[in-house]
Design goal:
about 210 residues; mainly alpha; Tetracycline Repressor, domain 2; 10 helices; about 65% helix; about 0% strand; globular
Amino acid sequence: MLPTEIPSKKHSFKQQQLQFRETAILDTVNQLLSQKGFDLMTMDEVAANVGIAKASLYKHFASKEALAAACMTRLLERALDTVHDLPDTNSAVENLRAVVRWAVSTHLQGTMPLLPSTRSTIQSALQNHAPYMQALGKLIEQFAKWIHEAQSKGELSVTLPSEVVLYTLFARSCDPVADFLKQGGAFTDHEITELIVETTFQGMVGQA
C-alpha cells in the first residue's frame, strides 16, 4: 500500500525564521565573546545587538551559559569541518599544522569566542550540552590519532606526553601572542599566523 502523502523534507517558513534568528544570535554572541569576554557580555546586550526583545532571546537560550555552550559547539563543528576538508595526501603533522593555522586565523579575525576556563557554571553548562561533548570528543579523538602518528614517525617529539601536545595545540586558539603582535602593527594577520604555527611546531631553538 502506497502512502498518500510524501512528507516534505523542507523546513517550514517558521522553522526557517527561527533558524535564521538563532544564527544571528550566535553570530552576535560569538563577536561579543571574542571582543569582551563572557563576564562583560550581558543578555540585554545580545538582544539589543540582534534586534529582538530579551524575552525572545530567552525562548532560544535559557541563560548566558547556554548561549556560550551553543556558541562553543558551533565553533567545534566548524573545526571538524576544517578537519574534514583536509587533503587525504596530508601527513599527520601537516593536518595538525593546518588546524592550528585555522584556529589562529579565526582568532585574529575576532571570531574566536573566549570563555573563562575555570568557571564552574560554564564548565557545567558545556559538560551538560550533549552536542558540545560529542563534537569535542570527535575533535580530541582525531587530534590524538594525528599526534600518535606524528610521534611514531618522528615528526613530533616522543619525549612529550601526548596530553601536553594536545593541550598546547588547543591553546593556540586563544594565544595572546597573536593579539600582541597584531596590536604592534609590524606584521600582517597572515604573517602572524605563520609565525605562531612555526614556533608551535619548530620551536625557537636554532638549527645546528
